[in-house]
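Hi all, long-time lurker, first post. I run a small reading group and we've been trying to get comfortable going from sequence to structure in the token notation. Rather than ask abstract questions, I figured I'd post a concrete chain and ask someone more experienced to write out its structure so we can walk through it together at our next meeting. Sequence below, copied exactly:
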Amino acid sequence: MAALPPGSLFLGFDSSTQSLKATVLDCNLNVIQLDQIHFDSDLPHYKTKDGVYRDPSDSGRIVSPTLMWIEALDLVLQRLSKSGLDFGKVAALSGSGQQHGSVYWKNGSSSLLSSLDSNKPLLDQFRNAFSISESPIWMDSSTTAQCREIEQAVGGAIELARITGSRGYERFTGPQIKKIFQKQPDVYNSTERISLVSSFMASIFAGKYASIDHADGAGMNLMDIEKKTWSKVALEATAPGLEEKLGALAPAYAVVGPIASYFVERYKFSKDCLVVHWSGDNPNSLAGLTLSVPGDLGISLGTSDTVIGISSDPKPGLEGHVFPNPVDTKGYMVMLCYKNGSLTREGMH
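-- Answer (accepted) --
Happy to help. Here is the structure in token form:
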């Protein structure tokens, strides 16, 4: 890799449940700039509560409007620009996304991604890009039937855990895809690509579909965690023709490609700025905490509460999750996650 130009900056995002955060670092990892879009307060016209919609007609169904995430990206880039950030110095950008959430790109959206008009905001150009306007997210618990069906099809819950790192979990992407295929087959059939929140955001910056990465991809009940490829048996248990809609997998640290010309023209990014694959918030927490010794644990108290650690010899069971380590290609990360985190604590005050 060529030496970085003097004064290079690095731009990181966190696309979480309730907000989109942007952090700018210099070469010495000093924080140069921060900004944050709170969905409820900064984008009130979506009428979300805690960044989500709770569906009163479908018990446990919790989704977020996909376009809200795009408008938040427009807004945070505008704010960074107004505050004087020189985007031309940004050598690379990446980010983390809330895990498990999924975005459904409509047939033909790949050509839209590659031909964005730099005179228009992103929001105006993506209004018709999705086959479903609301993204199921990790808080959703409406897919119990689909979880049991997938487990049964692969040979039981423990077999699904052995292959994919987790038994069937309602919030995981595979059961969510199966529910859409069963209940809205027209939506499924008109979908060209299914992204996770992380690969969705990376796709916008790259101007092409970014791969789902190995670490975030393990939160779907679809990937063979040992081979780091899509599991044929899990795919077949979920929906027909699914592998084509998911695309290839990639390491979390791999480069998607140079930034799309839209951002070069509109915000004056360098055409050499690299878009690195985004990953899930929990794998990125493990990387950011530099956990590298088995026995070390990280605890995250957020909208959900999680405990993460690392292992070289994972034994997936009926509780918790095993993902590939996003930094160490031979290792794994283990995680326990509980949904009733900060919102429960806030409700007790």
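A couple of things your group might point at:
The mean pLDDT is 96.
The chain has one domain: 9-347.
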